[in-house]
Design brief:
13 helices; 13% strand; 34% helix; TIM Barrel; single chain; alpha/beta; 2 domains; nine-stranded mixed sheet; 9 strands
């Protein structure tokens, strides 16, 4: 019996009810019966309290995170259009990237410069918020602020939000403090997670707001689980090539849920499910939703996007790696 067939649908529910009834009857006769082994996500995952992120009774499919909104090629990344589209396509959680403007505003954009994603040119840090708002981020969309996205999240009761701190501390010294303050102001502590490749950013959030969930992103780290534990992160975020059954098992034994990124084809999405990843980060939530609706291995391959190429901005800074203890 596959995991999806056991955990979902009317038949699965009837099996669980029948099993519970049998256990009750036999127990009432004085016989010793071992209860069924429950496969549940680590405690940290349940504590996120993001809509669908609740412990399953027997099994669960990976929770779908909309990468940069999850609008794929239908809406520009990290724009409100993408954030509105992601949940409609199956994302239970939205992910965004946060940088600082010249005047200290928290703006949602992935790169250090505006060149790739807008009609402007130059470092994000050299623009004021007012100037950034004049740029076209694609299809007439504007660069959102974190406050705008938090307001949208608050209006969607079952939606979670992951905020990735992209700016280095030396570029924006108070970015972690400002992110925590914005989340607190919005009253969304139970539905927001803050993540970063930078261990100092994660550690700072943990110091400021221990009840705000955090995650350590990694691509090259030698011992990410040890590092995550040292800075008290609540989850680990491995790149696709680091999401192995061995790593997932080790992370779960350490009480850390695993969020794998960035998975855009049915094949790699199902591989993540097979090795036990708790969540998948994808540009195409609709492809993930369709893939998880089927049993392995007979899954049709929706068109989707190609697997992403290597992005040097999505890895640790050498200075940060140098601070890691083996």
């Amino acid at each position: 019996m596959d995991r999806a067939g056991l955990a979902h649908g009317p038949a699965g529910l009837l099996r669980r009810l029948a099993l519970a009834l049998c256990v009750s009857i036999v127990a009432g006769c004085g016989l010793q019966v071992a209860p069924p082994r429950l496969v549940v996500p680590p405690v940290g995952l349940a504590a996120l309290n993001f809509g669908q992120l609740t412990p399953g009774t027997l099994a669960h499919d990976p929770v779908i995170v909309g990468h940069r909104g999850g609008g794929s090629d239908k809406a520009p990344e990290n724009t409100m259009a993408a954030f509105r589209l992601g949940p409609r396509h199956g994302a239970a959680i939205l992910e965004c990237d946060v940088q600082c403007s010249k005047d200290g505003a928290l703006v949602i954009i992935h790169d250090k410069t505006v060149d790739r994603t807008t009609d402007g040119k130059g470092p994000v840090r050299q623009f004021t918020l007012e100037q950034l708002k004049q740029l076209d981020a694609g299809q007439g969309e504007r660069i959102p602020t974190l406050e705008e996205l938090l307001s949208f999240t608050a209006s969607q009761p079952d939606l979670g939000l992951v905020v990735e701190i992209k700016a280095k501390r030396k570029v924006c010294p108070e970015i972690a403090d400002k992110v925590v303050a914005a989340v607190n102001k919005a009253g969304l502590n139970s539905r927001v997670m803050v993540i970063s490749f930078y261990r100092d950013a994660v550690a700072r959030v943990e110091t400021l707001q221990p009840d705000l969930r955090t995650g350590l992103l990694f691509f090259l780290r030698v011992n990410p689980i040890k590092t995550a534990k040292q800075i008290r992160a609540d989850s680990v975020w491995p790149a696709r090539h680091r999401t192995t059954s061995h790593f997932v098992k080790a992370a779960h034994e350490g009480g850390l849920p695993v969020f794998s990124w960035t998975l855009n084809s049915a094949k790699v999405l199902l591989e993540a499910r097979r090795v036990g990843a708790d969540s998948v980060v994808t540009d195409v939530p609709d492809v993930a939703k369709e893939a998880f609706a089927h049993d392995d291995p007979d899954v049709p391959s929706p068109p989707g996007l190609a697997s992403p190429s290597f992005d040097p901005e999505d890895q640790e800074d050498p200075e940060d790696l140098a601070s890691e203890t083996p």
